Amino acid sequence: MAKMVLLPVLLSFLLLPFASLALTQDFCVADLTCSDTPAGYPCKSSVTANDFYYHGLAAKGKINPLIQAAVTPAFVGQFPGVNGLGISAARLDIEVGGVIPIHTHPAASELLFVTQGTVAAGFISSGSNTVYTKTLYPGDIMVFPQGLLHYQYNAGSTPAVGLVAFSGPNPGLQITDFALFANNLPSSVVEKVTFLDDATVKKLKSVLGGSG
């Protein structure tokens, strides 16, 4: 019993040095010449004000003709100053009729702030598959919990723009359609696991650049 009581105390003492480092180090600008790790990039040795500044979201992103939309990231790979801070950002540009297809961010929650146009958005819960949807207008925000499938599309008659904040420096992105059909997984396997017929699978693979 005494050992069980002492265990949390010992763990606390073991963690104190790490807590001290976290409190005494103001930031850790990513050294992008090194590899990313689960704990983030190693710290850059020489830092300037430019490491904490990024202009890449000021202009409209390059529109993907297939989805008629653009996602411009300000993740740690583009904005090294967010390394270790638990934040990052992006810009969405969605043309009339455009869509950000169903996707997930495995490593972060998302907060969308609409600045222009009308955006229909929603996410699907993991347990009950409950769908939560809203139509968003300029000034509206919506949160998408980490890892859940979600989407956005232009529900208006003018281009839509949104700014996005993430709760991690490298939120990750997996678009469901591309994961299923833009790969070399044999069509017969895709058909089996999606219940789609052969013609539909091959059509989607052709559109999205898959093979097999």
TrEMBL record:
Localization: Secreted, Extracellular space, Apoplast
SUPFAM superfamilies: RmlC-like cupins
Domain of life: Eukaryota
Signal peptide segment: 1-24
GO CC annotation: apoplast
InterPro entries from the UniProt entry: Cupin_1, Germin, Germin_Mn-BS, RmlC-like_jellyroll, RmlC_Cupin_sf
Pfam families named among the record's database cross-references: Cupin_1
CDD domains, sorted: cupin_OxOx
GO MF: manganese ion binding
Binding site for oxalate: H105, E110
Covalent S-S links between cysteines: C28-C43
Chain positions recorded as Mn(2+) binding sites: H103, H105, E110, H150
Keywords of this entry: Apoplast, Disulfide bond, Manganese, Metal-binding, Secreted, Signal
Domain Cupin type-1: 55-202
Record note on quaternary structure: Oligomer (believed to be a pentamer but probably hexamer).
UniProt record similarity statement: Belongs to the germin family.
Function, in words: May play a role in plant defense. Probably has no oxalate oxidase activity even if the active site is conserved.
PANTHER family on file: GERMIN-LIKE PROTEIN SUBFAMILY 3 MEMBER 3
Designated name of the protein: Germin-like protein
Organism: Digitaria exilis
